[in-house]
Each structure stands twice: as structure tokens, then as C-alpha cells.
Inverse folding.
């Protein structure tokens, strides 16, 4: 059956996947803690670069997207079986932490490393 | 809503660790951060700059050895009458349990080992407050180590991990660490009492508590001294089970 399915899988096409600039990728984004309403207790840093992932996931999930097997199958299901099952979504894959210096309500000063605060790469899953 | 506090937004997801932290620890919106928190803030800013770059990325070669460092300032200080050339301040530090699981990896007291007040030089050190035995020194110092380490020309950081871990939490989950900050006048002259007037203990000594996330150090837990396990927070057993 895999052979039958694979014969129906079209190759990557600009028509279906959209222009390459619209494909799933990491977008740089910077925000200040003032904009987030958190500057009254965060001393450093002033700016935060969470970044974000945006774009269409291609019909054929190539290796560089680090998509899990499940995403590949879900794509096939969407394509061949049931279009109510959505295509995989473009989401962050790897993150890096951020160090924050803040003042707590009781006056203590805190240095803390928060995990998974900055998106570093994207995937379709 | 740019620039507006986002408490309502945060309250919609109160169980997420970061959101919970923000809800629990953030000052009220109206409570602006003080413009100047004096030397402790300066000390922590320097620690931050050593450990992270301007964008907040932790430096790969950082030597901090923990994912969280809390600076605790004394609740109050009580100055005792001058005894000869000595001036003694009693400093109380409130240590509290955290809501989230963290494990203490190190505790230090940071103090000024030399003070220069109104033309007088004072040589200072810190001791634990021990009832009926005022001359007893830190247990950690009895064996000759560790000795205080000079951080800069102004500050000395001394390890008191053993001393802190030997104090049990009371039934309310509170603990007060009492230390004595002792200074000796180097060049005789006027009364230290007068010199000391108006000098805040907040500027002379504070605690640094170094923590690691419990779930990160689960595999290392068995290697730690048994006493340190007391610092596992209330819900740490649950986290450990989940990790297993």
C-alpha cells in the first residue's frame, strides 16, 4: 500500500506550497518588557527576542524541517484520506533560555535562567 | 494594550510554571521598581553581566553554577553597644520556602570586609549568631576552610552552605538566619557609635542563595550531601516521581 500512496504523492510544487518566502521559517522578533507590561519588576535585559515561526508547511516535509514521522503521516492523511485532518503546523523546534534579573515583591533581587524562552529554529508537526 | 500590565492575560493560564511565577512573585502593577537599590543591586547587576550578555543570552563560560540566585537582604539590624574597639550588628535574614521546586546548591554571605566611614577605617567580618556562645565561629571555618574569598576590593563572599542547611525549617516553613556583622576600628579615635549612625546594614551585608531547578538535578541528587536534600521544596517529591 505504501507503494500506491507514494505514487500519488506529488513532488514539491510552488503552486501548492506557495511561494518559498511563505514557507515555514523562523522570524526575528524583538519586544521590550515595557510592551509586555513587565518592566516594573524586570531589571535586565530591557529587550526580549522571543522570535516566532510562521509560514506554510510543504506537502513533502523535507529532512531539514526535523518533522517527526507522525507529521509526515498526518500530511498524507490530509492529502489522501481526509482533508478535515489539518496539515502539520509550523511551530518552534529548538529554544534557548534567557537570563533575567528582577526584583521580587518582597524586595529580594533574583537572577534566574528561564528555559525555552527564545525560539531558535522551526519545524512542521 | 501595549505597555499595560497583563495580569488578566496571565491569570488565564495560572498553572504554567512561568505564568505561576509571574503571578506569585511580580510586584503589583503600581509598585514600581525602586530607582536605586544601592549596592546589592549593583552587585547583582555585575553578577548578571558576568553570566549573560546584553540580550539576556546566558554566557557559555558562565561560572555561576546555578540557574537561580536570590539576593536576600536583612530584615532589620540591631546595633549593640560598642565593646571596646568592636562594633556589632545583628542581622536577621528571612528564608522562606519556594512554591516551585528548587534545590539549594550554595549559600554565601556577602559583606564589606573593609569600611571607610568619616575618615575611619573599619575591618569587618561576619559570624553566626549563637546564643550563650558569642565567640563560636562558623562550623565551616572550624576546619580551616572554606575561607572567605575576596570578590573585589569592596566585597567578600563567604560560603555558609553548611551553616544554613543545619537550621531546620519551623512548622510554618519559615526560617530566620541570624548573623553578626562585626567591625573593628583600625585607627582609634571617636566612638564607633557615632560613626555607625545612619549606616544601613543593607549596604554592608546580604545573603546569596544559589538554586538549581529540581527536575534538572534529579540525577545528581544522590551525589549531594544528605542535608541538602532538606532544601527540596514541598512538592519536590511529586516532581521526582514525574521525572522517574
Amino acid at each position: 500500500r505504501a507503494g500506491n500512496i507514494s505514487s500519488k504523492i506529488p513532488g514539491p510544487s510552488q503552486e501548492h506550497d506557495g511561494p518559498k518566502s511563505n514557507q515555514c521559517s523562523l522570524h526575528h522578533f524583538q519586544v521590550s518588557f515595557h510592551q509586555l507590561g513587565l518592566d516594573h519588576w524586570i531589571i535586565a535585559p530591557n529587550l526580549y527576542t522571543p522570535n516566532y515561526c510562521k509560514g506554510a508547511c510543504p506537502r513533502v516535509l523535507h529532512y531539514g524541517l526535523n518533522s517527526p514521522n507522525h507529521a509526515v503521516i498526518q500530511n498524507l492523511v490530509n492529502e489522501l484520506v481526509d482533508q478535515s485532518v489539518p496539515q502539520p503546523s509550523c511551530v518552534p523546534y529548538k529554544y534557548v533560555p534567557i537570563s533575567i534579573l528582577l526584583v521580587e515583591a518582597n524586595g529580594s533581587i533574583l537572577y534566574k535562567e528561564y528555559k525555552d524562552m527564545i525560539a531558535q529554529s522551526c519545524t512542521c508537526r | 494594550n501595549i505597555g499595560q500590565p497583563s495580569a488578566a492575560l496571565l491569570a488565564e493560564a495560572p498553572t504554567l510554571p512561568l505564568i505561576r511565577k509571574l503571578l506569585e512573585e511580580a510586584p503589583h502593577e503600581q509598585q514600581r521598581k525602586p530607582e536605586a537599590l544601592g549596592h546589592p543591586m549593583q552587585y547583582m547587576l555585575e553578577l548578571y553581566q558576568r553570566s549573560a550578555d546584553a540580550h539576556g543570552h546566558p554566557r557559555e563560560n558562565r561560572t555561576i553554577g546555578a540557574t537561580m540566585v536570590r539576593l536576600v537582604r536583612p530584615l532589620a539590624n540591631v546595633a549593640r553597644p560598642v565593646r571596646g574597639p568592636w562594633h556589632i550588628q545583628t542581622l536577621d535574614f528571612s528564608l522562606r520556602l519556594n512554591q516551585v521546586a528548587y534545590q539549594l546548591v550554595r549559600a554565601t554571605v556577602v559583606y564589606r570586609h573593609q569600611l571607610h566611614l568619616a575618615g575611619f577605617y573599619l575591618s569587618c567580618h561576619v559570624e553566626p549568631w549563637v546564643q550563650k556562645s558569642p565567640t563560636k565561629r562558623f562550623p565551616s571555618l572550624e576546619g580551616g576552610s572554606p575561607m572567605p574569598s575576596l570578590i573585589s576590593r569592596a566585597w567578600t563572599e563567604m560560603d555558609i552552605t553548611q551553616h544554613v542547611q543545619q537550621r531546620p525549617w519551623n512548622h510554618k516553613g519559615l526560617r530566620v538566619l541570624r548573623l553578626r556583622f562585626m567591625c573593628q576600628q583600625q585607627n582609634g579615635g571617636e566612638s564607633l557609635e557615632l560613626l555607625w549612625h545612619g549606616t544601613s546594614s543593607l549596604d554592608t551585608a546580604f545573603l546569596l542563595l544559589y538554586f538549581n531547578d529540581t527536575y534538572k538535578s534529579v540525577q545528581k541528587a544522590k551525589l549531594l550531601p544528605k542535608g541538602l536534600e532538606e532544601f527540596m521544596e514541598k512538592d519536590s517529591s511529586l516532581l521526582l516521581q514525574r521525572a522517574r
User: Anything to note?
Assistant: Chain B touches chain A at residues 1-6, 18, 22, 25-29, 31-34, 37, 40-41, 44-45, 47-48, 51-52, 54-58, 64, 67-73 (CB under 8 Å). Residues 38-51 of chain B form the longest helix (14 residues). The two ends of chain B are 42 Å apart (CA to CA). The beta strands of chain B are 68-72, 77-79, 86-96, 102-112, 114-117, 120-128, 149-150, 155-159, 174-185, 205-213.
